[in-house]
Amino acid sequence: MPAEWPWATWPRFSAIRKTSTFRLAVMFGAASVLAVLLVLAMVYSLTAGNLDTRVDLILRAEMARLVAVPPADLPAAIDASSRAGANPLGHFGLISPGGRWVAGDLGASPPLRLGHTYAREDGPDVRGPLHILAERTAGGFIIMVGRDSTVITELRDHVLVILLASGLVVVPLLLGAGLALSLGPLRRVDRLQRVASTIAGGRLDARMPIEGRGDELDLLADTVNHMVGEVERSMAQVKSVTDAIAHDLRTPLTRVRNQLYRAARAPNLPEAEGQRINAAIEDLDTVLARFAALLRISEIEAGHRRQGFAATRIDELVAVVIDLYAPLAEEREVALLAGSLAPVTLVCDAQLMVEALSNLLDNAIKFSPPGGTVMVTVTREGGQAVIAVVDEGEGIPAEQVDAVVRRFDRGAASPAVPGSGLGLSVVAAVAHLHQFALELAPARADRARPGLAARIRAGHVPAM
Amino acid sequence: MARILVIEDDPDTAGEIVAELRGHGHEVRAANDGDSGVELALREPFDAITLDRMLPGLDGLSVVARLRAAGLTLPVLMISALGDVDERIAGLRAGGDDYLIKPFAPDEMAMRVEVLLRRQGQMAASTALLTAGPVEMDLIRREVRVAGEPVRLLHMEFRLLEFLMRNAGETVARQIIFERVWGYYFDPGANLIAVHIARLRKKIDLPGQPSLIETVKGEGYRFDAG
């Protein structure tokens, strides 16, 4: 699926259902459904109760009329009331004092409860549900008055159908509304997260997108932007001071170094003095090299250099660096292997990329145990080029990953391992200049020796 | 001995360069601005020029452009306080042969001038065969023989040996080796060049004999032609 299709980048449902918007929408919808249920239940309850009362009143009125009929006329009165058309909903019955069915259309099916209205179901295709009132007369006859309560049952069924239909319509509507309402904020949060990751990766010039709606996400983004701006300003001040110190000390230190150099060449200088002066020159050279490296990082970070940018076959560049470091790896008894080197062209500064790759390989070889392997690959992952240098060293704990790309931070490296602590800073600066991502992660799930997988991830790369 | 023209407006730096080059036995003339430097270079014969990038009036890039336009092919070492690599590229594109950033160590400056001088001399000789001590290098066939025996070298080993042999008898700093052989302008660290030198030694050194490539502590390496 092409990445530019909008649904290719839609968030997963599992992510959507966790959003506050989705949860609020569903909770609000569920509350609404519950309220509708309660209202319908109340309507049903009141209507059914009212109908029951009305039926009861009708039954008692009919009973009062029939009880007043002389016993001898009762069979005829019952039959007259039962005749079809006389009272479509009414049904009647008369049982003699001896328990024999005398008249009417109601069957004398038990149980027969005297003095109370009760419900009876005669079964399908006979009669609907009935409300029945049975009374014994002074002459010992039992009069039964019944009324069809189908209308009440139908009312209940209608209410249930309404509830079910409402549920079938409302629940998908609720989910849809939740999804629709959540997608926008989730995408905004996703964009904010991406920028936050970029900032966490050292790009302090990145800023959170503000939509201009003035909502809580805009307010949060504005606050974070302000905070990052302050951090950037503070770091720039610290860096500027560091650079100024490095720059200002270089000239006097070089002069001292040059004077020592001339002193070392003076005639008749005792050998021991000459050795001491040369040792001092070497130390000064080390300091000057560090200052030069610091200023170089600043120069790269400043991002001004563009003259060296050109379309470059990155796989060929990687092969060159592997050749450059093969003897060093061999000396350290580390197997330096070129894995898959996919043909990839990137617009980059080849000099700087070689410098960055050299630092990665130098680190990987330096921190690999004898007999270990360093694997270098160039691959394409979803339109991106990924240059990976994977070693079998002790790796970098997750909490130190951010620190090791800072100047002079050597992480937990043994003091016995040589290095200035500037190598990964150079790599980070070069990656930053090119707008590539530098990722440092454990190479494998081995707690004792997780190794380090250093990846430079370049943006969209055209297919070759 | 070579004749070298130093074009530098800062008197302290000019004095330092002149003193160092004279210390290496060269005849040195100095000019303190671009116009007088160009005039001197066109009037007198020189073997090399050290040229400040930032000069009052005619700047370093314009100076080198005028010299090249006048047909002068002598090597030019550009010296500049502008350390930016883009500036280095601009200097080299304008016609400079090497680039040194201020503040610099005078010994490194002299070393770079001498590398340029030797390269210029060899270009003039246009030799296809290099010989130094027991080592013979056929640059056309890309073959190497040590004491008459063929030695197989990898591409970069061949270039490294060629560079060392072209500068036989002279110490060259590892940074200069890295720039001239590999063509990259960053500090590769001491170990990287050392292991390449060690690997080359294994292939060309004769058993029981001192190494043909001597390590000069704190300075670099020297191919000892004996």
Can you lay out the helices and strands and say which pair or pack?
The complex is a heterodimer of chains A (464) and B (226).
Chain A: H1 13-16, H2 20-67, H3 74-82, E1 90-95, E2 101-104, E3 117-121, E4 129-136, E5 142-148, H4 150-200, H5 216-264, H6 271-302, E6 309-313, H7 314-331, E7 335-341, E8 345-349, H8 350-367, E9 373-381, E10 384-390, H9 401-404, H10 423-434, E11 437-442, E12 452-460
Parallel strand pairs in A: 7-9
Antiparallel strand pairs in A: 1-2, 1-5, 3-4, 4-5, 6-8, 9-10, 10-12, 11-12
Chain B: E1 3-7, H1 11-23, E2 27-31, H2 34-43, E3 48-52, H3 60-69, E4 76-80, H4 85-94, E5 98-101, H5 106-125, E6 129-132, E7 135-138, E8 143-146, E9 149-151, H6 155-166, E10 171-172, H7 174-182, H8 190-204, E11 213-216, E12 220-223
Parallel strand pairs in B: 1-2, 1-3, 3-4, 4-5
Antiparallel strand pairs in B: 6-7, 7-8, 8-9, 10-12, 11-12
How would you describe this structure to a colleague?
Chain B: Residues 3-117 form the Response regulatory domain. The complex is a heterodimer of chains A (464) and B (226). By secondary structure, chain A is of the alpha+beta class. Chain A has helices spanning 13-16, 20-67, 74-82, 150-200, 216-264, 271-302, 314-331, 350-367, 401-404, 423-434; strands spanning 90-95, 101-104, 117-121, 129-136, 142-148, 309-313, 335-341, 345-349, 373-381, 384-390, 437-442, 452-460. Chain A folds into three domains: 1-200, no CATH class; 216-302, Helix Hairpins (Orthogonal Bundle), CATH 1.10.287.130; 309-460, Histidine kinase-like ATPase, C-terminal domain (Heat Shock Protein 90, 2-Layer Sandwich). Chain A has ten helices and twelve strands. Chain A is rod-shaped, with a radius of gyration of 45 Å. Chain B contains eight helices and twelve strands. In chain B, the strands form three sheets. A five-stranded parallel beta sheet of chain B has the order 2-1-3-4-5, with helices on both faces. Chain B has a four-stranded antiparallel beta sheet with strand order 6-7-8-9, covered by helices on one side. In chain B, a hairpin with a 2-residue loop joins strand 6 (129-132) and strand 7. In chain B, 37% of the residues are buried. The model of chain B has no long low-confidence stretch (mean pLDDT 89). Chain A binds chain B through residues 250-251, 254-255, 257-258, 261, 265, 278, 281-282, 285, 289, 292-293, 295-296, 299, 304-308, 323-325, 327-328, 330-331, 351-352, 354-355, 358, 362, 418, and chain B through 16, 23, 83-86, 89-90, 102-107, 154, 156, 182, 184-189, 191-192, 195-196, 198-199, 217-218.
